Amino acid sequence: MGQRGGRQETSKKLEMAQRETMKAEAKVQNNEEEAEKLKAKVQTLASVFGVADLKNEAIGLYNVGHSCWLNSLLQVFFMNIHFTRILRRITVPLYAEQQKKNVPYQMLLLLEEMQCGKQKAVYPIALAYCLSAYNVKLFVQHDAAQLFLTLWNLMKRQMKKPELVEELNGLYTICIQEHLACQKCSFEEKKNSSMLTLPLPLLDSNCRTLKTLVILCSLWEPFLCSTGSMKLIHLPQTLTIHLKRFCFEKAAHIHKLSHYLPFPQDLDFNAVLTESQCQADDNEKAGWQYDLFAVIAHSGSISCGHYCAYIRSLTERKWYCFNDSEVCQVSWDDVKCTYGHSNLHW
């Protein structure tokens, strides 16, 4: 996952909001009721603009029922301060039964437990039970990319504020233009749609292995059929690239591609995409520059294995390895070893 370059002025906004609130509080010192309201307002502002990204120290998640796939994805969500600002403003369900089945609310409870606790790791049991109601079962290896889509759909459906759904779309959604043409007549159709991840196969059309992420991006142009294609219109603030590390062999057997794949810390899509691959103006493409934010890595086979996440703190600018309950700071060299390298360090 990549984040667009540049830093937000969140801390300044919070400082200004708190300063204005405290000035107002000074004017009503003799009114205890008003003072309490203002104090609550300061706490609310701190919550809205709060940073989940390593407030004190990195907190792990215990593995419950082979939940490394869930833990890795949750850590990527929670370390994204742009996502946690949205999550902290959700509408809390009124009834306990609704709260148990509400994915955004259970994610918020888990985030707060991680932020407020002093333990090295917490148990994501309540969220895991919540997801089991939507056929996301424990003790089964799930694909992280598929789980990302499942969580995304549940969050969008269960967030009651339209403005938050819109912000969530702006944070993660890729917009594309689909172009269809009829072979029998001159009819052509263009329509816009969206996708959550940018899928990149690791094999070219001749089944040859592609060696770098930059080459993968430069060759991106997934054909709908022999008479259709896709073009990029908009890339989000957090761009998620899905490396399709598998291929089909005889008898529909799926084989994992485990070769080494180097990737950069920053990527300018203007430098790798051609005009035939995008349909965007210069203002849009000016924001197509990304810094690497997180890598979800898998070791093992298609049917069995283990997930962990390497995430760069957006506030500290340091890399951490989140391996279930164990969290440690790592170097960029460690991160570069995550895909197919013999020196992979968990």
Molecular structure report:
The chain contains 12 helices and 17 strands. The chain is α+β, with helices and mostly antiparallel strands and 346 residues long. It has one domain (2-7, 51-336): Cysteine proteinases (Cathepsin B, Chain A), CATH 3.90.70.10. The protein has a 4-stranded antiparallel sheet, with no helix packed on it. Strands 14-15-16-17 form a 4-stranded antiparallel sheet. Strand 10 and strand 11 form a beta hairpin. The longest helix has 18 residues, at 10-27. The model is unreliable at 41-51 and 223-227 (pLDDT under 50).
Compact description:
The protein is built from 12 helices and 17 strands. By secondary structure, it is α+β, with helices and mostly antiparallel strands. A hairpin with a 6-residue loop joins strand 15 and strand 16.
Output the keywords.
four-stranded antiparallel sheet, alpha+beta, 35% helix, single chain, Cathepsin B, Chain A, 17 strands, 346 residues, 23% strand
Strand and helix map with partners:
Layout: E1 2-4, H1 10-27, H2 32-48, E2 60-61, H3 68-78, H4 81-87, H5 96-100, H6 103-116, E3 121-122, H7 125-132, H8 144-158, H9 162-172, E4 174-181, E5 188-195, E6 198-201, H10 213-218, E7 228-234, E8 238-239, E9 241-244, E10 246-248, E11 254-256, E12 266-268, H11 282-285, E13 289-292, E14 294-300, E15 305-312, E16 319-323, E17 326-330, H12 332-336
Parallel strand pairs: 2-3, 6-9
Antiparallel strand pairs: 1-8, 1-13, 4-5, 4-7, 10-11, 12-13, 14-15, 15-16, 16-17
Helix pairs in contact: 1-2, 4-9, 6-7
Sketch the major β-sheet.
Answer: 4 strands, antiparallel
* CATH 2nd-level architecture: Alpha-Beta Complex
What string gives the helices and strands in order? Answer: EHHEHHHHEHHHEEEHEEEEEEHEEEEEH
CATH superfamily: Cysteine proteinases
What is the helical fraction, as a range of percent? 25-40%
Helix-and-strand structural type = alpha+beta
Could you tell me the strand content as a percent range?
A: 15-25%
Kindly provide the name of the CATH class: Alpha Beta
Q: Look up the CATH topology.
A: Cathepsin B, Chain A
What is the tally of helical segments?
12
State the total count of DSSP E strands.
17
- Rg from alpha-carbon coordinates: 22 Å
Low-confidence stretches: 41-51, 223-227
Number of domain modules: 1
**Which strands sit side by side, in order, in the main sheet?**
8-1-13-12
Give the termini separation: 19 Å
If you average the pLDDT, what whole number results? 80
Query: Globular, elongated, flat, extended or rod-shaped: what is the shape?
Result: globular
